[in-house]
């Protein structure tokens, strides 16, 4: 059964087209990602799915319902983790869950029964009586997720779940999201981090300028739009385009970035030997596996994080 | 338990289903409370719950502005200034000691101040700074629930503030008689006649500087020129007109009549009572509709 089905979905703000006719289908139990740079239309799409932003055009159903007529019914079954936490900072951790649970019409007893396990899940048990203001960024984020789970949603929408967190806090969060996924919760998330998309998503779409430019699993997208390995070369020049000629013919494709050349090759080490054999000596060289960043670069000609 | 509950009505007696329904829960396991009309979620009561939870945290900081400040006004204006205005049995307003005149006006003015304080930065902050409203609107709550819950909270605050003021005035004999207690609901209505349009204003403005304008050009002048401290008739005609537009003037007329009692010269004929109440209800009602519209425009993009 598909939880989300969008056909030709559009969102416009006056003359500005934020989402320009996208087709998306997300099945129950899936972990689905919208990948793209800021301004690609990810958040607008999420807000339409979350039934908080009216659809400008096309068709959209969530849980088989139309957000225009059944917004509250859809929201009752959703968990939403917005980009900014919007916690009740002056209230205690426990009170945040209580107040929020009441929004769903839960009784105090129901919320209380759920609070313990949720705080444990969010690794905040010891902080349950702390005022939210005093929590770290990672803790606040986990509390936002715990709060979004208070109504035991079957679909969780996460908008940039780990933006602004330090690496360690990100890994803790990913681990929590993995657990949810394992428990059968459908995850839909937006991100502009490649590693996040590769970690969390079974399937994703790459968005740019409100359109979907590619779709598939992280692995299949890399296989389809990038080579197996990437050789990165840094030179001591102002413009790396000057050095493209020296490596011509070595790679299937060469991308010129501001500070380096990317050579898309099957065998990175082999390519590096060829480069050296030609008498080309870069400042530094790095062989790595191709990532979604390369896919994005290939599809749009731009980096994801600008 | 959810399955058991769903089959509750048809389940055999003594089954798990019956146990669940004996528990009286109208909420299924996924946390969806559905009323017979199919409405989902906690509604305005849940929003009220939020404001009360916040108030429980910060009430101490409101004590001075809510309770102490009006009493200081009463002491300074009523007794201090009153001693100059009244001499012996001769009072400026015949038959009404100045302290009673001020007390019966201040209760209304205080309601306006409280209403303004609760619907300016609180609303603007919930929209823009804290994003509380964003968080609420991803749940089943609707825009009208947000407005209603907030306004019911304001109503409770107004009742508390006006109630305390009237009780203190009765103790000080600045108000008289059991009818003075009826000044409380009237002051609350008067407060709401400000709360709803100010809410609409707060949901509309993009920058907080708008509140300075509101405070300087609306609240402060009305505080002074709505018959709180002196009869409107003392003013030149132009200012009197502003006074009569101001909901505060009409609230003051009502609280003064009730606070001073039927024997005072400022008592009102029944049709005047009705007219003042109707005027206040009009502001409160129109303001409510504007507030819902303004918040919807602001939040639903």
Automatic annotation (TrEMBL), chain A:
Residues 4-234 form the ABC transporter domain. GO terms for molecular function: ATP binding. Keywords: Antibiotic resistance, ATP-binding, Nucleotide-binding, Transport. It is a peripheral membrane protein. Its main location: membrane. It is found in: Cell membrane. InterPro entries: AAA+_ATPase, ABC_transporter-like_ATP-bd, ABC_transporter-like_CS, ABC_transporter_ATP-binding, P-loop_NTPase. SMART domains: AAA. Belongs to the ABC transporter superfamily. This is ATP-binding cassette domain-containing protein.
Automatic annotation (TrEMBL), chain B:
Keywords: Antibiotic resistance, Cell membrane, Membrane, Transmembrane, Transmembrane helix, Transport. The keyword ATP-binding does not apply. It is found in: Cell membrane; Membrane. Residues 61-298 form the ABC transmembrane type-2 domain. The keyword Cell membrane applies. The chain crosses the membrane at residues 63-85, 91-109, 151-172, 178-201, 213-233, 273-295. Residues 1-34 are annotated as: Disordered. InterPro entries: ABC2_TM (IPR013525), ABC2_TM_bact-type (IPR047817), ABC_2_transport (IPR000412), Nod_factor_ABC_transporter (IPR051784). It comes from the Bacteria. Residues 14-27 have a biased composition (Low complexity). It is a multi-pass membrane protein. Its main location: membrane. It holds the Pfam family ABC2_membrane. Belongs to the ABC-2 integral membrane protein family. This is Transport permease protein. It comes from Occultella glacieicola.
């Amino acid at each position: 059964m598909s939880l989300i089905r969008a056909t030709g979905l559009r969102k416009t703000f006056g003359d500005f087209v934020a989402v320009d006719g996208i087709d998306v289908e997300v099945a129950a139990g899936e972990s689905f990602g919208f990948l793209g740079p800021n301004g690609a239309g990810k958040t607008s799409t999420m807000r339409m799915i979350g039934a908080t932003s009216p659809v400008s055009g096309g068709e959209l159903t969530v849980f088989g319902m139309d957000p225009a007529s059944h917004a509250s019914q859809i929201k009752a079954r959703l968990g939403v983790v917005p980009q900014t936490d919007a916690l009740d900072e002056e209230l205690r951790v426990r009170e945040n869950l209580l107040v929020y649970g009441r929004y769903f019409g839960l009784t105090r007893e129901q919320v209380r029964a759920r609070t313990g396990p949720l705080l444990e899940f969010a690794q905040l048990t010891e902080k349950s009586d702390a005022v939210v203001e005093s929590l770290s960024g990672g803790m606040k984020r986990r509390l936002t997720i715990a709060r979004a789970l208070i109504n035991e949603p079957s679909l969780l929408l996460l908008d940039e779940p780990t933006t602004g967190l330090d690496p360690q806090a990100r890994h803790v969060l990913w681990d929590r999201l993995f657990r949810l996924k394992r428990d059968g919760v459908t995850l839909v998330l937006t991100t502009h981090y490649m590693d996040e998309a590769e970690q969390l998503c079974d399937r994703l779409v790459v968005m740019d300028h409100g359109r979907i430019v590619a779709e598939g699993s992280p692995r299949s997208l890399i296989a389809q739009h990038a080579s197996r390995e990437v050789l990165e070369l840094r030179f001591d020049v102002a413009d790396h385009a000057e050095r493209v000629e020296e490596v011509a013919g070595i790679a299937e494709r060469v991308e010129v970035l501001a500070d380096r050349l990317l050579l898309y090759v099957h065998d990175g080490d082999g390519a590096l030997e060829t480069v050296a054999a030609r008498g080309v000596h870069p400042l530094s060289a790095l062989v790595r596996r191709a990532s979604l960043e390369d896919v994005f670069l290939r599809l749009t000609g731009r980096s994801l994080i600008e | 338990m959810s399955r058991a509950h769903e089959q509750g009505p048809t389940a055999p007696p003594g089954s798990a289903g019956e146990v669940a329904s004996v528990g009286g829960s109208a909420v299924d396991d996924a946390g969806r409370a559905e009323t017979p009309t199919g409405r989902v979620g906690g509604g305005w009561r849940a929003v009220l719950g939020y404001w009360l939870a916040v108030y429980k945290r910060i009430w101490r900081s409101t004590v001075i502005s809510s309770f102490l400040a009006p009493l200081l006004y009463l002491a300074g204006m009523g007794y201090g200034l009153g001693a100059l205005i009244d001499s012996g049995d001769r009072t400026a307003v015949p038959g009404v000691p100045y302290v009673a005149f001020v007390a019966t006006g201040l209760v209304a003015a205080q309601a306006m101040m409280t209403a303004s304080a609760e619907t300016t930065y609180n609303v603007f902050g919930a929209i823009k700074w804290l994003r509380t409203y964003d968080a609420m609107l991803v749940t089943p709550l609707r825009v009208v629930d947000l407005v209603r819950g907030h306004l019911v909270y304001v109503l409770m605050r107004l009742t508390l503030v006006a109630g305390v003021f009237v009780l203190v005035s009765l103790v000080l004999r600045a108000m008289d008689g059991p009818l003075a207690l009826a000044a409380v609901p009237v002051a609350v209505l008067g407060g709401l006649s400000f709360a709803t349009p100010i809410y609409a204003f707060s949901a509309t403005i993009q920058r907080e500087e708008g509140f300075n304008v509101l405070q300087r050009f609306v609240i402060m002048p009305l505080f002074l020129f709505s018959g709180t401290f002196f009869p409107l008739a003392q003013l030149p005609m132009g200012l009197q007109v502003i006074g009569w537009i101001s909901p505060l003037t009409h609230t003051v007329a009502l609280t003064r009549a009730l606070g001073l009692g039927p024997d005072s010269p400022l008592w009102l004929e029944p049709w005047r009572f009705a007219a003042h109440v109707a005027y206040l209800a009009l502001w409160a009602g129109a303001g409510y509709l504007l507030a819902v519209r303004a918040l919807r425009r602001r939040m639903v993009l």
